[in-house]
Amino acid sequence: MSSVEQAMATQLANIEKRTGKTLAELTAIVLGSGLSKHGELVAMLKSTLGMGHGDANTLVHTVRKAQEGDGAAEPAGSNQVLDGLYTGPKAALRPVHDRLLAEIRQFGDFEESPKKGYVSYRRKKQFAMIGPATNTRVELGLNMKGVEPTERLQALPSGQMCNYRLRLGSPEDVDAELLGWLRTAYDAAG
Question: Considering the entire predicted model, what is its pTM?
Fold first, then answer.
């Protein structure tokens, strides 16, 4: 992830903290406002939520970018996001992501934040990132501490978006060992 993308992710997380609203809730406010001009939307966010100009501007750009090309009246659902990530040669990898997501849903509540090439999963903070790394592998990034890396669970250098990475080629790779690590990351993010 580029430093620009990291900065954007940080700013959006800070907007969520300052407003006390999730990105999904903020998106619903923008889309439900009935306003269409950028400046009007920025002014509305500043007056109704007390946002600063930079935060309001970033939020409007983010919401509009997420809506480009799909013509939807509301934020894209999880299936639409995943359909966009897993196209062409990567389509065969979709069952891996679906299996991981089904397991995460059994843990409890969380937020999904689609990015350009992956989906970030958060509680109070990000606990996992899932997306197609290649045409043959899905990459699962996990944020957790105190876990010994293995050949399968690769530790990443500090400063990365996640502490660990796993590469998965099929739904069968989502086994008890992996689910233990995923649960550890989920619990740590609460």
Answer: 0.60
